[in-house]
Amino acid sequence: MPSSDFETIKKLITYRRSVFPPSYTDQAIPAELLIELLDCANAAPTHKLTQPWRFVVFRESGLTRLADQLAALYQRHTPAEQFLQKKQENTREKVLRSGAVIAIVVSYSDTVPRWEELAATACAVQNLWLATAAAGIGGYWSSPGTIKHLGDFLRLANNEECLGFFYMGYHDESPRKPTRKPIAKKITWEG
User: Has 77 been labeled as part of a binding site?
Assistant: First the structure.
């Protein structure tokens, strides 16, 4: 018989979903809570204990710096015939609507294959996502094309790469199950 812990985690996993900045309220996310959430991320599995994840947290005035940087990069790296003023404004707005934005960084150790470092970092983000959902905070992981130009801004080392941003904020949306194909169609039994 499953324990209540199992039922709790199953519910969190089932109802975890992407919640986007237009749904965020103005309620601030305390720095202490962000540390607790990132501590959950830090508990992710990691081969040979490389712990390849690193996070850069933008909040308060840091959100404006990030919004300005992303908007400038969009303008600088978008061909004139593809540039949309509305997209540049939306780039800024989604950062500024967030309670916090976390840059997701992987540090490659060359101790294990790179895909394992990526997988471990993705596990850390999933832990973060589940913890934010449990705390009543919505979030989503976005990887805009401009992340490849953020090395200096994020002070990345030569062995580091930004995998995107985790946008987060309190919200008032009702929980809902995700749309998924039945698991029975994704399992092959060998015994």
Answer: no
